[in-house]
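From: lab user (bench 3)
To: helpdesk
Subject: output format question, protein + fructose -6-phosphate

Hello, I'm new to running complex predictions and I'm not sure whether the block I got back is the full result or only part of it. Here's what I submitted:
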Amino acid sequence: MEKNYKNIKIIVKGSYGCASATAADIIGGFVTAQPSGVLGLATGSTPEGAYTKLIEAHRTGKLDFSRITSFNLDEYHPIENTNSQSYVYYMRDKLFNHINIDPANTHLPNGEAPDPHAECAVYEAKIAAAGGIGLQVLGIGLNGHIGFNEPATAFPRATNYVELEASTINANARFFDNADDVPKHALTMGIGTIFSAKQILLVVTGAAKADIVNEAIFGDITPQVPASILQLHPNVTLVMDESAAAKVLENLK
Ligand code: F6R
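Helpdesk reply: Thanks, we reran it on our side. This is the complete output you should expect:
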């Protein structure tokens, strides 16, 4: 199912696998159209399927990442790069080590930086120097966060140092041996950084996200639901599986 709602192209697929294939097609389309473009990438469970499909497309000679630059949304702080729960480890493990992207062209906020505030300024400047993000891949948190921009009283503009909400720590505890090991802070692109991307791909899967994605698309635009800002972006594609789309489909009727 495909439907436009305001500026948002909504695509609903029958399963996680099909939604992942669609997301990979959109990312692959960008790489083909802009071989030296700038990709904004996300971690988490949601994009894993799309990354697997991109690796397959690269292996079968369909995608060349050699001139692509990437910037990830976020990283825990503090965390060592070698920690298997760091986002830099995730990106190497799930994507970068399996495609021909130049490691020197891949960027994440540095979880080892001694001064997290200074690191945020450095990261924001690197994105600007690269000409900004062409296509930004996003997931959504159960509380409506994008990147690690948690519900707040204002939309953070630039890359910032944040304290994670208890709900985010709990949601991410599944990846750690125990919840106490989840870092309490993170470095994240700001809402302004994300919003400046020319194109946005939001991928949402699983029944647990049905309420929050519905609120983000049809609710008030408020920093209490950070993803709601996407209602104002001129070029958003929202890819969902049927279970995540349940409430949105009701509202589109
Ligand atoms: C990840 C990120 C987060 C996740 C979100 C959903 O880099 O910035 O905003 O996209 O927490 O995570 P999953 O996909 O694990 O449900």
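A quick orientation on your result: Residues 42-46, 73-74, 139-141, 145-148 surround fructose -6-phosphate (CB under 6 Å). Let us know if anything else is unclear.
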